[in-house]
Design brief:
By secondary structure, the protein is mainly α. The chain has helices at residues 111-120, 125-129, 152-189, 196-208, 216-222, 228-239, 245-250, 282-295, 300-311, 318-321, 333-345, and strands spanning 8-11, 14-17, 86-88, 103-106, 133-134, 137-139, 355-356. Helix 3 packs antiparallel against helix 5, helix 3 (152-189) crosses helix 8 (282-295) and helix 6 crosses helix 11.
């Protein structure tokens, strides 16, 4: 029997601890529908170490992430096939902001289709590690049969390959915003004035990061990339490499919690203490995780050390920076040590320098 999963809830302005969450077991997949809610499926152990290949459980209970309270916007849900790829711009693209790349957003019904899609694009992790370009592919959901794969290495590889381009594209958009932000700060430092379009773009960006447009220096600290090694390792831990019930049904990959309010997408559970926040897609889940790390007061040390690395002319080091996420879990240093073990075991730091295919 899986141990109870104890979650720690952090509201944006305060911190509180919840009672343990009872998580019954279950299996199978449910297709989410706005018209016909899926039958309630009991939660499996959730982000439990027992779901992580090659790693023994280190403590009773799973890790508890920080909730952010981000509410994913509504998104049309529709069926699609592997061949039904459609171009999609980033949800935060702005008519007057930096140019965004087009990505292919796809729904795959099973792991066979997912693997076929990667083969069709000649996309391999070894290639990405050697500096090969990663194709801009976005899956809407992780395949429901991912957990059925008997080969744990194959399961992890598929999950990493699916998540890596999404993480890289999110970073690319953030870094494009950062570049524009640095340009505006230089204009401001030189005594120049922003035009209307620049003021509008800056106001939108500042609002997204919970700041005022005049706080340029702090905004630059917040608008920066999250190392892929961190994102992939935490998603692997929190979602059991994409196999947890919350991940399969609600795209909840990073263990974020929605204690109150209403879900933006329909799932067979309600908001509450230690209840996972669902998202319309893997992309939105990833964006919420990035924004959480880049705005929540609990992760200020992460942002400061990242800024110091930038100041020293270095790229953000995921293995080092994860050490600043002590409050991501009530297990504190135990969580940090475990995530670092996942990074080492799977050589995830290799992906911190990975790059997407040219626009």
């Amino acid at each position: 029997m899986a141990p109870p999963h104890i979650e720690e809830v952090h509201a944006p302005a305060e911190r509180a601890t919840t009672a343990p969450m009872a998580i019954p077991g279950g299996a199978g997949s449910v297709r989410v529908s706005l018209d016909a809610p899926a039958a309630m499926e009991p939660f499996p152990p959730g982000p439990s170490f027992a779901l992580v290949d090659g790693a023994a459980p280190v403590a009773a209970g799973g890790f508890a992430p920080q909730p952010f309270g981000f509410i994913a916007g509504p998104r049309e849900m529709r069926s699609a096939t592997l061949a039904d790829a459609r171009p999609m711009h980033g949800r935060w693209s702005h008519a007057i902001g930096p140019m965004r790349r087009e990505v292919k957003s796809m729904q795959v019904s099973n792991t066979t289709e997912l693997a076929e899609m990667f083969r069709a694009h000649d996309y391999t992790l070894d290639g990405a590690r050697r500096g090969g370009a990663v194709p801009s592919l976005h899956i809407e959901k992780v395949p429901a049969d991912l957990g059925a794969l008997k080969d744990g290495n194959e399961r992890k590889a598929l999950f990493i390959k699916a998540l890596l381009p999404i993480v890289l594209e999110a970073n690319e958009r953030i870094l494009a915003d950062r570049e524009e932000l640095l340009r505006l700060r230089a204009v401001d430092a030189a005594g120049g004035a922003f035009d209307l379009a620049e003021r509008m773009w800056l106001a939108e960006l500042a609002d997204r990061y919970n700041l005022e447009p005049t706080q340029l220096d702090e905004l630059i600290t917040r608008v920066d990339a999250v190392p892929p090694s961190m994102a992939i390792a935490q998603a692997g831990v929190e979602s059991g490499w994409g196999t947890s019930y919350a991940a399969r049904v609600g795209n909840a990959l990073f263990g974020q919690i929605q204690p109150t309010g209403r879900h933006a997408v329909q799932v067979p559970w309600r908001p509450g203490p230690a209840m996972p926040q669902p998202f319309a897609s893997v992309v939105e889940s990833c964006e919420a995780y990035f924004l959480n790390l880049n705005t929540h007061p609990a992760y200020a040390a992460f942002r400061v050390e990242r800024a110091m690395a930038r100041g020293a002319g270095k790229s953000p080091d995921g293995y080092r920076l994860i050490g600043n996420l002590m409050r991501y879990s009530e297990l504190g240093q135990g969580y940090i040590n475990f995530v670092r073990g996942i990074m080492r075991e799977n050589k995830l730091s290799d992906f911190d320098e990975a790059r997407l295919s040219p626009i």
